Amino acid sequence: xxxxxxxxxxxxxxxVNAFNAVVPVGTAVRYYSVIGQPENVSTxxxxxxxxxxxxxxxxxxxGLSGAVALRALGW
Length: 75
Hints:
Layout: H1 16-22, E1 28-31, E2 41-44, E3 50-51, E4 57-59, E5 68-69, E6 73-74
Antiparallel strand pairs: 1-2, 1-6, 3-4, 4-5
């Protein structure tokens, strides 16, 4: 049985461990290229999240090159 995740509309910062626990690889997410604006792109996660040397938590998503900040995602 597929687990249904709750929809998150706010950009709540999550730790890498918390994100990975609730958003498994392959989960449908919304990417907001401009945080705080309603325009978004539907995509899916390709990797588990990790922290950049700067401390920013990021993840890879389908259709975009490079890492995406967790704070730019909704699900």
